[in-house]
Design brief:
Among the domains are: 136 residues, no CATH class; 175 residues, no CATH class. It is rod-shaped, with a radius of gyration of 62 Å. The protein has a 51-stranded mixed β-sheet that branches. The chain has a two-stranded parallel sheet with strand order 26-34. It has 20 helices and 55 strands.
C-alpha cells in the first residue's frame, strides 16, 4: 500500500510536473489564430499577433507576445489603436496559487497608442465587450475573485448593485512596469485638439490596482523633453489620496511642482493643494514650444505660485503670486463649471519698468530644433539608424490621419458660427497696474475692467493717467466671432499740456512757437477689428482748432488710410518753426550773369551747395499703402494772412496718387487749383494730366503775405495769371506753362530737370508784350529809352542748366526790332563765355538809348577814335543801370571796362540797319570777340551813306587799357546824310589808330596813328558841324574849305556853272601823336583855287592851328581873267582857335572886294556898270538866291570862255 501511495504520489507529482513543464515545450504559435480570435471576442476589436508567442510556468509564469496590435474603432484616423513590438508579463507562481496576483514585472517595448475622439463623439478606448459567453468554453477566462472587503451582495450576479467592474480589485500587485520608447497620441476631432507624447520611458510600480502608485521617467510632449516623478497614494475607502508630482525641463530650467490631495476620489473628487512653477528663462521655455522671436523681457526668471481648490463643478485660485524679473503681481480667481461657466478674476500688479524691458535685447527666433535636441553624436546615431532598413519605418510619428477616411456624419446639423467667447460664459475681470515706467515717464493707475456675457466682452472701463497731466479712457463692447472679433466703443482723452505729452513720446516741439500744441481734447467713437480700426464722429480740439469727421486704418497686405475731415480753423503760424526768412527778388543786375546761370552761387546765407549736392531725397509715399483722404479747412492762417476754402481731395491706390483737387479759394486775394495723377511714387514719380491754375489780382498783396520783396517798379494792383500742365517724371517733367503779368505773357513748353541735372530746362520760350520797357521797369531795370519802342513777340529754343544757357532759333520782334539767331552763355569756367550769332532788322539806337543821354550826340564832344568804333568801346554804363554818361569835355573818370575782364564773348552780328544820331549803317556785318579781357573786332563792315565802312581792332582792358584800330570809309556820300545841308561830296578815310589810358581824357591824350582823308566833289557851301562823319580828325580840313568858301564866296557863283567848278577835292594825309593830329600837307582843290595847308589839331586841348596858301590863277577864274589881269600867284590863309569854330584869315590881296583899289576888286571896278550889277556880290542888296536874266547872260559868257579852254 505504501508503495502504491508512493507510486500514486509520484504519478501525481509527475502529472503536476508535466503540467508545469509541458507548456514550455508547446509551440503556442500554432494557436495564434485561436488566441487572437478569442482576444477579439473579448475586446470587440480585431487583435493581431505577428510575432512569436511564448508561455512558461516554471520557475514562474511568463507570457511573451511579439508584434501585437489591436484594431482601432471604425472611422478612426489610424487602422490600429495599439501597436506593440513586444510585451512580457512575469507573474509570481505561489501568490497566484493562493488567489493573489502578484505581477513581478511587465515590459512593454515601443508601444504606440492612439487615443482619439471622433467627430461624432465616439471614443476609441470604449470597448464593446460581449455581455455573455459560455461557461467553460474554450478560451474562457477565469474571473478574479471579488475584493476581500466587498459585501456579500456585491457579486457579479447582481447587475443592479455596484458591479465589480466599477471597483478596482486590490488583489493585483504590480511590482514593476517598464515602458521603453512608448508613444501616445491624443486626438479630438470635435475640437481639433491634438497632443503627442513620444520617447516615453518609465518605471512604474503599484502596491495594488488601487494604489499606491509611483512612476518616474522621461518623455517628450510636442517635442519638449520632460522628466516626471509622480506619486499617488492608495485609494482606500473615502480617505483622501495624496498626490505629489514634479515635472522638469531643460528648456529654460523650467519646473512644475504639485502638492495636494484628492478627497472623495470615487464619488466626487476634489483637489486641494498648491501649485508652484518656475523658469530661469521664460523665453527659452516658451521657445521650446513656439520658436518665434520673443521680446527680451521674457528672458528673465519667472515664478507663478497659487493655491488651487478644484472639483468637477468649481475651482478657486487663491494666493496667486506672479513674479517676472522685478515685476510682481497678486491675484485671485473663482470659476464654476457646467452649462453656464462663470469666472471672476482680479490681478493687481505693482510697478512695471517698461523702459528696462524694452532695452533688453530681443530673443531671436529658433529653427526647427528644440531645447531638447540631442547632441551631435546622438544626431549622428539617429541618422545611422534611420539609414538602416527597418520594418517599422512606416510608423511615422505622430501618425497622420491621411489614408483613412472617417465615417461621414450623416445628416449632421450645420454648426453655428462660434462667438468670440463661449456664449454661455459669464466672467468679470479686473486688471490694474500701480505704475508703468515708459520713456522716463510714469503711467499711473492703469486699469481695465471687463465683463463677459453672451459671447461678448464689455470693457466697462480702461483708464490711465499719462505724463503731463493727461488722461485717457476707453469703453466699449468686444464681440463678433472668434474668426472676426469686433470692438465698438468710445474713447476720450484730455491733455492740458500737450507739449509735455509730446515730449514724453519723443516728439520735440522746440521749433514750434510757444502758442502752438498747448492743449488736446479727443472724443471719438472707435470701431476696431483685426482688419481695421476706425474713428467715427471724431471731435478733436487742438488749441483753437476743431477737427471733426471720420478716419481709419485698414490692416492688410496693403494697409489703407481713409479720412474725411473738416477743420474749422487752422493757424499754421502757430506750428511752423520761427525760422522763416524774407525772400527777396533782386533787381536785374547785368553784372550778375555768373550768379544767374552758374550751378552754385553765394548769397546772404552763405555759399550754397551745388544743385547736384543739394538734391534732396524724394519724398515719396510708399507704394504698399493705399489711402483716400478728403480734408476741408474753412479758414487757414499762414504768415498772418487768412486763407479760405482750402480743400484736398485725393487717393492713393496701388501706388498711384490721384489728386482729384487741391485748391485754395482765397489767399491774399489769390486762388489756385491743382489736379492730376502721380505714379511710381517710390522710384521716380511720373505725373500724368497734372494741371494747375492760379490767379492773383494784386501781386503786391500776395508778395507781402509771402514775405517776398518785389522790385520797386512793380506797380500796386498788378495781376498775375498762371496756368498750364505737367507730364512725365518729377525729376524730368514736361511743362507747358503760361504766365501773364505786367502787360506781358510768357509761355514755356519743354523739358525741366529737377532738382539737379543737365540741362535744367530745355524747351521753347516765348515772350509777348506791348510794353517791354514797362516790364523791365517793373523788374527793377532802370531803363527809360529816348524813343518809343515797338512791341515784343519773340521766341527761342532755350536750354538752361549746368551753368549754361542756350537760346537758339530766335524768332520774332524785340522792342519792335526783328530778331533772329542764337545766343549761348557758358558760366562753368573762370569767366562766363557768351557766344552770339544774331541778325536784326532796322535798329534805331537813338530810340534805345536812355533818355538821359541825347539821341543826337554832337561830334564835337565825341572822341574821334570812337566815331567809327563799335558801341562796346564807348564808356560803359554802371552795373545795373543802363544810363550812358556823356560829359561836354573829354571825360576824366576812369573807364569801367570790367565787363571785358569778367566775360568772354564771341559775337557775330548781321543787321539790316543800325541808326545812331545821323549815322545809318546799312547791311552791317560784324564779328567781335572778348577773351581774357581783350576785345577784338575782326570784322566790322557796313554800308554808310552809299559808301562802305570797315573797321578792325583790338582793346586790351588791362590796368592801363590799350586800343588799336583800323578805320576805312570809302565813297561815303555826305549829301545823303540827314541834315547835312550839302548837295555833294564823298569821303574816303583810311586810318590806323592806337591809344591807351584809364579814362577818355587819357585815351585822347595818348592817341597815336596815321591815315589819309580824301574828300571829292565836296560842296564848300556847308557847315562842317552838320556833317555826321566829320570827327575831330576830319573836321580841320573841312573847316579850311569852309573858311575859303566864305572868303571867296563872291567868285564861286561866277564859275559855278562849269562842271566841277566850286566843288572841293581834299587829300589830307595825317599823323597823330599824343592826341595831336598833324597835316603835312593837306592838298586843297576848290574849283577856283588850288592849294595846300599844314598844321595841327590838338584834340586834348580842342585847338586848331593850321596855315596854307592857295592859287587862283590855276583855276577857272584865272582862265576867265587871263586876258584882262594877272591874278596873284599865291594867297595865304590861316585857321586857329577852337576846333569846332576856328578863326579863319585870308590874305587881303586875294579877297575880291570892289572899291578897294587892289587885286580883283580893282578889276571889278573897271567892269561896265551893267556887268558889275549882275556879277555876284555886286547886286546892290538884291536877293542872290535866283540869278537874274542878265546874270545868266554873263554866266553863259564865262562858260563859253571856259569851254574854249
Amino acid at each position: 500500500m505504501k508503495k502504491v501511495l508512493i507510486v500514486i504520489g509520484g504519478l501525481v507529482l509527475l502529472v503536476i510536473a508535466a503540467a508545469l513543464i509541458a507548456p514550455s515545450f508547446v509551440d503556442w504559435n500554432q494557436y495564434r489564430d485561436r488566441i487572437t480570435t478569442e482576444a477579439g471576442k473579448a475586446t470587440g476589436r480585431d487583435v493581431s499577433i505577428g510575432g512569436d508567442i511564448r508561455l512558461a510556468v516554471l520557475p514562474s509564469p511568463v507570457l511573451v507576445v511579439n508584434d501585437l496590435s489591436i484594431a482601432n474603432i471604425d472611422g478612426g484616423s489610424e487602422p490600429q489603436m495599439l501597436r506593440l513590438q513586444a510585451a512580457e508579463v512575469n507573474i509570481a507562481l505561489w501568490p497566484l496559487l493562493t488567489g493573489r496576483v502578484e505581477v513581478r514585472s511587465v515590459s512593454l517595448v515601443e508601444p504606440d497608442l492612439i487615443l482619439e475622439v471622433l467627430a461624432d463623439g465616439r471614443r476609441n478606448w470604449d470597448f464593446a465587450v460581449p455581455a455573455e459567453r459560455p461557461t467553460g468554453a474554450p478560451g474562457a477566462v477565469i474571473d478574479l475573485p471579488p475584493r476581500r472587503d466587498a459585501p456579500a451582495e456585491e457579486t457579479p450576479d447582481q447587475p443592479d448593485a455596484e458591479a465589480p467592474a466599477a471597483t478596482v480589485p486590490a488583489a493585483v500587485q504590480l511590482d514593476a512596469i517598464s515602458i521603453e520608447q512608448g508613444r501616445v497620441l491624443y486626438r479630438d476631432a470635435t475640437t481639433g485638439q491634438e497632443l503627442g507624447i513620444g520617447s516615453l520611458n518609465a518605471d512604474v510600480s503599484a502596491g495594488s490596482l488601487r494604489g499606491p502608485l509611483d512612476a518616474r521617467g522621461s518623455m517628450e510632449i510636442e517635442g519638449v523633453p520632460l522628466t516626471f516623478d509622480v506619486s499617488i497614494g492608495a485609494v482606500e475607502g473615502g480617505e483622501p489620496v495624496g498626490i505629489r508630482a514634479d515635472l522638469g525641463s531643460d528648456a529654460g530650467a523650467s519646473r512644475l511642482r504639485v502638492r495636494g490631495m484628492v478627497e472623495d476620489w470615487e464619488a466626487a473628487p476634489r483637489f486641494s493643494g498648491r501649485i508652484e512653477s518656475a523658469a530661469d528663462d521664460l523665453a527659452a521655455a516658451i521657445q521650446a514650444v513656439a520658436a518665434s522671436p520673443l521680446p527680451g523681457f521674457l528672458a528673465q526668471r519667472t515664478t507663478l505660485d497659487f493655491d488651487l481648490v478644484a472639483s468637477q463643478t468649481e475651482a478657486t485660485v487663491g494666493a496667486l503670486a506672479l513674479r517676472l524679473g522685478d515685476m510682481s503681481a497678486e491675484g485671485a480667481a473663482m470659476m464654476t463649471f457646467g452649462d453656464a461657466p462663470e469666472i471672476v478674476a482680479q490681478v493687481v500688479a505693482g510697478r512695471i519698468d517698461l523702459d528696462s524691458w524694452l532695452a533688453m535685447p530681443a530673443v531671436p527666433g529658433r529653427g526647427p530644433a528644440t531645447a531638447g535636441d540631442e547632441p551631435a553624436e546622438a544626431d549622428a546615431e539617429a541618422s545611422a539608424q534611420a539609414a538602416a532598413p527597418d520594418d517599422t519605418a512606416d510608423r511615422a510619428w505622430p501618425p497622420s490621419p491621411a489614408g483613412v477616411k472617417p465615417e461621414p456624419a450623416a445628416e449632421a446639423p450645420v454648426a453655428a458660427v462660434p462667438t468670440l467667447l463661449p456664449a454661455d460664459l459669464r466672467a468679470a475681470l479686473a486688471l490694474s497696474v500701480e505704475a508703468i515706467t515708459y520713456r522716463d515717464g510714469v503711467i499711473r493707475e492703469a486699469s481695465i475692467a471687463a465683463d463677459a456675457a453672451e459671447g461678448t466682452l464689455t470693457v466697462t472701463r480702461a483708464t490711465a493717467l499719462l505724463p503731463g497731466g493727461a488722461d485717457a479712457n476707453l469703453s466699449g463692447v468686444l464681440g463678433g466671432t472668434a474668426a472676426d472679433p469686433r470692438l465698438e466703443g468710445q474713447m476720450q482723452a484730455e491733455a492740458p499740456d500737450l507739449r509735455a505729452v509730446l515730449a514724453w513720446l519723443g516728439y520735440a516741439a522746440d521749433d514750434v512757437p510757444s502758442d502752438g500744441l498747448r492743449t488736446l481734447s479727443l472724443n471719438t467713437g472707435v470701431v476696431a477689428t483685426p482688419a481695421a480700426i476706425r474713428a467715427r464722429n471724431a471731435d478733436i480740439r487742438i488749441d483753437g482748432s476743431q477737427v471733426q469727421g471720420d478716419f481709419g486704418v485698414a490692416f492688410a497686405e496693403r494697409p489703407r488710410l481713409d479720412a474725411d475731415l473738416e477743420i474749422d480753423r487752422l493757424n499754421l503760424d502757430a506750428y511752423l518753426p520761427e525760422t522763416a526768412q524774407e525772400i527777396e527778388i533782386p533787381a536785374a543786375d547785368p553784372g550778375a550773369i555768373r550768379e544767374t546761370f552758374d550751378g552754385s552761387r553765394e548769397n546772404s546765407a552763405g555759399r550754397q551747395q551745388n544743385n547736384a549736392d543739394a538734391a534732396a531725397p524724394k519724398a515719396a509715399a510708399p507704394a504698399s499703402v493705399d489711402a483716400d483722404v478728403k480734408v476741408q479747412i474753412a479758414e487757414l492762417s499762414w504768415r498772418n494772412t487768412a486763407a479760405s476754402g482750402v480743400r484736398i481731395d485725393g487717393s492713393l491706390q496701388d501706388g498711384v496718387l490721384t489728386l482729384r483737387e487741391a485748391r485754395v479759394d482765397d489767399f491774399a486775394g489769390a486762388n489756385a487749383t491743382v489736379s492730376g495723377t502721380f505714379r511710381e511714387l517710390e522710384t521716380d514719380p511720373i505725373m500724368q494730366g497734372v494741371a494747375f491754375q492760379a490767379r492773383a489780382p494784386d501781386l503786391s498783396r500776395l508778395a507781402r503775405s509771402l514775405d517776398l520783396t518785389l522790385p520797386d517798379g512793380v506797380p500796386s494792383g498788378t495781376a498775375v495769371v498762371a496756368s498750364g500742365g505737367v507730364e512725365g517724371t518729377t525729376a524730368k517733367p514736361k511743362v507747358d506753362v503760361t504766365v501773364r503779368a505786367l502787360g506781358a505773357e510768357v509761355h514755356a513748353a519743354g523739358d525741366l530737370t529737377l532738382p539737379a541735372g543737365d540741362p535744367l530746362y530745355d524747351g521753347r520760350l516765348r515772350l509777348v508784350s506791348d510794353d517791354i520797357v514797362g516790364v523791365l521797369t517793373a523788374l527793377g531795370v532802370d531803363y527809360r529809352p529816348a524813343g518809343r519802342l515797338g512791341g515784343t513777340d519773340v521766341g527761342a529754343q532755350v536750354t538752361l542748366g549746368g551753368g549754361k544757357l542756350s537760346l537758339s532759333g530766335l524768332d520774332g520782334q524785340l522792342a519792335g526790332i526783328a530778331l533772329g539767331g542764337s545766343i549761348e552763355v557758358d558760366a562753368t569756367g573762370d569767366r562766363p563765355a557768351i557766344t552770339a550769332d544774331l541778325s536784326t532788322g532796322r535798329v534805331v539806337i537813338d530810340d534805345l538809348l536812355p533818355a538821359a543821354q541825347s539821341a543826337g550826340l554832337d561830334w564835337r564832344i565825341v572822341p574821334a577814335s570812337w566815331m567809327a568804333l563799335p558801341p562796346a568801346l564807348h564808356p560803359p554804363a554802371r552795373s545795373g543801370v543802363l544810363v550812358a554818361r556823356v560829359d561836354p569835355r573829354w571825360p576824366d573818370e576812369p573807364l569801367d571796362l570790367s565787363v571785358l575782364r569778367d566775360v568772354d564773348a564771341k559775337l557775330t552780328l548781321r543787321s539790316e540797319s543800325l541808326v545812331h544820331s545821323q549815322y545809318a549803317l546799312e547791311q552791317v556785318d560784324a564779328s567781335l570777340a572778348v577773351e581774357s579781357g581783350v576785345l577784338t573786332w575782326e570784322r566790322l563792315n557796313a554800308t554808310l551813306f552809299g559808301g562802305s565802312a570797315k573797321s578792325t581792332g583790338r582793346l586790351d582792358a588791362a590796368d592801363a587799357p590799350t586800343v588799336e584800330a583800323t578805320i576805312q570809309l570809302e565813297g561815303v556820300d555826305l549829301s545823303r546824310a540827314p541834315g547835312a545841308g550839302i548837295s555833294s561830296g564823298r569821303l574816303w578815310f583810311d586810318a590806323e589808330l592806337r591809344t591807351e589810358g584809364r579814362s577818355g581824357a587819357d585815351w585822347i591824350s595818348a592817341l597815336d596813328g596815321n591815315g589819309t582823308i580824301t574828300l571829292r566833289g565836296l560842296d564848300p557851301g556847308f557847315d562842317a558841324t552838320q556833317v555826321p562823319v566829320a570827327g575831330p580828325i576830319i573836321a580841320p580840313v573841312i573847316e579850311l574849305t569852309r573858311g575859303l568858301n566864305r572868303a571867296l564866296g563872291p567868285l564861286l557863283g561866277a564859275v559855278s556853272g562849269r562842271a566841277g567848278s566850286g566843288l572841293a577835292d581834299i587829300s589830307a594825309p595825317f599823323t597823330v601823336a599824343s592826341g595831336v593830329v598833324t597835316f603835312d600837307p593837306a592838298r586843297l582843290d576848290g574849283g577856283i583855287y588850288q592849294g595846300q595847308a599844314r598844321g595841327t589839331a590838338n584834340l586834348p586841348a580842342w585847338r586848331l592851328d593850321m596855315t596854307g596858301e592857295i592859287s587862283l590863277a590855276a583855276g577857272p577864274l584865272g582862265d576867265l581873267l587871263s586876258g584882262i589881269r594877272e591874278l596873284p600867284g599865291r594867297c595865304g590863309f590861316a585857321a586857329s582857335g577852337r576846333l569846332d569854330s576856328p578863326d579863319f584869315r585870308l590874305d587881303s590881296g586875294c579877297i575880291p572886294v570892289p572899291g578897294t583899289g587892289n587885286g580883283i576888286g580893282d578889276l571889278l571896278e573897271r567892269v561896265p556898270e551893267e556887268l558889275r550889277r549882275i556879277l555876284p556880290g555886286n547886286n546892290g542888296g538884291e536877293d542872290p538866291g535866283e540869278p537874274s536874266q542878265p546874270e545868266r547872260v554873263i554866266r553863259d559868257l564865262f562858260r563859253g570862255l571856259i569851254d574854249r579852254r
